[in-house]
Write a structure and sequence with these properties.
This protein is mainly alpha-helical. It contains 8 helices and no strands. Helix 2 packs across helix 5, helix 5 packs antiparallel against helix 6 and helix 5 packs parallel to helix 8. The protein is globular.
Amino acid sequence: MATTFTDFRDGLGGDVCGRIGFDASTATGWRNFTARLREHDGSSGRLLAAAEEFSGVCSSGERIVLAAVLASGGWNQDADRICPGFWQRTLGSGMGEDVCRAVAAVLLRQDA
């Protein structure tokens, strides 16, 4: 199972990022992704507001990936608030392979 940053960015992770208004397509690795994610939000809170809105309409798998994206940016408490029980359900029962790969990529943070 491939779990590199590129797999995340070009798969479900990039799709979820796009749904919250963040274009991950030009990020070159995890460090760059995290810095750009934080810069995109700045002090406006717009990314968190978009994440909260998306969490109300996304699938359960997308919600788990959303929480992983938020956690990768350092918004762990927001991930817990927006996606309650995220860490308890991560890589657990019945998740699709694309969800497992996206979350594993965030946790492993391998660029290549």
